[in-house]
Amino acid sequence: MATEPRNPNIPVNIVTRPPEFSLSPQKVLIITQGAGSHASGTILENPQIEELDSLLGADSLANFAIRTFRKFDDTTEVDVLSVLESTGEQASAVITVGGDSTETGNLELIIGDEEFKISVPVANGATKEQVATSIKTALDSINSPFTAAVGSGVSAHIVTITFAVKGLWGNDLYVLSRNSIAGITQTITHFSGGTIATATDLNTAGVLKTAINKRYQTIIFDDHSINESSVRTYLEELLEIKNISMEGSAFYVLRTTNANITAKATVDSFVIGINAERTDGTPNAIYNTIPILKMARFAAIARGLRFTEGSDLSLYNANKTDIEGGLTQVTLPYTNMDLGLGTPLNPMTREDQEAYEQLGFSVDDYYNNKTVLGRLKTLYKTDPDGNSDESYQDQNDVDARYVIKEFFIKELKSEYPQHRLLEGSLGTGISMQDIRAYIDKLYDRLSLYSILDSAYKSEFLKRLIITKVLKGVDLVIVIPIESKVGGLYFFNIQLTL
């Protein structure tokens, strides 16, 4: 006899998740010195590693900046805008070796940056001249922007290391010895002597015009290649482009005296982030790194990976929290991202670090035996009317603004494409009430990601303005965000459909 089929009892767990929304693919622009066959002052888009030597020059900073970036992030698009080398002198360092070795071992040296470590084999009984030659051989064997020369005759124990690029780039770099060999001494004179012939040597005039039609969420540069004010002007002009989310932020290392750093605090901008390293007084906050390579690490880890959906941040997060990149990172402060810089030569006190942060500078921190990113700050101080405003003093506030604006523009353009809106008509069956209801739902979606607070939606809808105009509608979307300094602050999105 046939049996009745039975309905299987299969337990199903239903997991709710926010509606799909991801950030636009990240794009990074590097501005620094380059050579090679690529034309200076023009954008080179996403070059491959095997192209770098020919297009940008084997010893250029642009070459090594991209190589450093790719060590950490092999996905994000990274373009380069190279500028010409200065006319002037190269920086150099000197290692004077003394004594004869009484043991066998390896001398560990770091030349100018954590990227350029060499291991120098030393045999028992090796003379100071032989050790000097071994240092040159070891440096010659790695890909770096440094060359070594050993003296002759009575100077055959002296190694002179020269930075490949003329100008100011090489000054303030260090040669560090990480261990010792019995019987061998090392007297090190760190890098100095890099000069430019004239202050006008920097090839900065109009150099950013070639990037005007491309959106970069992140620009990194060194201030020996382009003036910070030029980058700031470029980004602030992009804020005026209507209906396109073109904003980005630029970051660089300001390595100079305390007086020069504090003088820069008069700048008022939320598009510029300055990593401050002062070179005078106590403490001296210099890290053994070439500034643009430090920024390349930052751009790869704290920007490219941090804002790429599903990327693995676990290797670079010193406290092992927030280990996956993507949308949920947008409003979180930038802290504890391991920059791989080793031990600072002389870290700042907590009091000095906080003083710099109050002025709007970012200062690296030393945490759990790692050099990590501290609070990432901007120089923003006042609103457009000149009133004191702390809304965008932290970079995560700026990032949230960008993402919210991008989200509303992207979703509204998709839901109400331009061809539906003819001669002031919203199209068949579409009303301004429909648009208001749709924006209401968009707010809810961002609330699910904890980017906006659902408690403020009524205030949001109250301030939302939709106006019918010829061939479309104008929207003024006023986004309320809870400020860390108390109360609400708002920013406007003006959009024509």
What does this structure look like?
The protein has 497 residues and is an alpha+beta fold. The protein has 3 domains: 27-84 and 203-372, no CATH class; 88-196, Baseplate Structural Protein Gp11, Chain: A, domain 3 (Alpha-Beta Complex), CATH 3.90.1160.10; 418-496, no CATH class. The chain is 24% helix and 24% strand. The protein contains 10 helices and 19 strands. It has helices at 52-56, 61-72, 128-140, 228-238, 258-264, 291-305, 350-359, 395-415, 432-448, 457-463, and strands at residues 27-33, 43-44, 77-83, 88-98, 105-111, 117-122, 146-150, 158-166, 175-177, 185-192, 195-196, 218-221, 249-256, 272-278, 365-367, 370-372, 465-469, 472-482, 488-496. The strands form 5 sheets. Strands 2-3-1-12-13-14 form a 6-stranded mixed β-sheet, sandwiched between helices. α2 (61-72) runs parallel beside α6 (291-305) and α8 (395-415) packs across α9 (432-448). It is elongated, with a radius of gyration of 27 Å. The relative contact order is 0.11.
For this entry, give a set of tags.
497 residues; alpha+beta; disordered N terminus; elongated; 19 strands; six-stranded mixed β-sheet; five-stranded antiparallel β-sheet; Baseplate Structural Protein Gp11, Chain: A, domain 3
State which percent range the strand residues make up.
15-25%
Number of strands: 19
H-E string: EEHHEEEEHEEEEEEHEHEHHEEHHHEEE
- Supply the number of structural domains: 3
Total number of helical segments? 10
Coarse shape = elongated
What distance separates the N and C termini?
68 Å
- The Cα radius of gyration reads 27 Å
Mean pLDDT across residues: 85
The helical percent reads 10-25%
Describe the largest sheet: 6 strands, mixed
Q: Spans with pLDDT under 50 lasting ≥5 residues?
A: 1-18, 419-424
Structural class of the secondary elements?
Answer: alpha+beta
Largest sheet strand order: 2-3-1-12-13-14
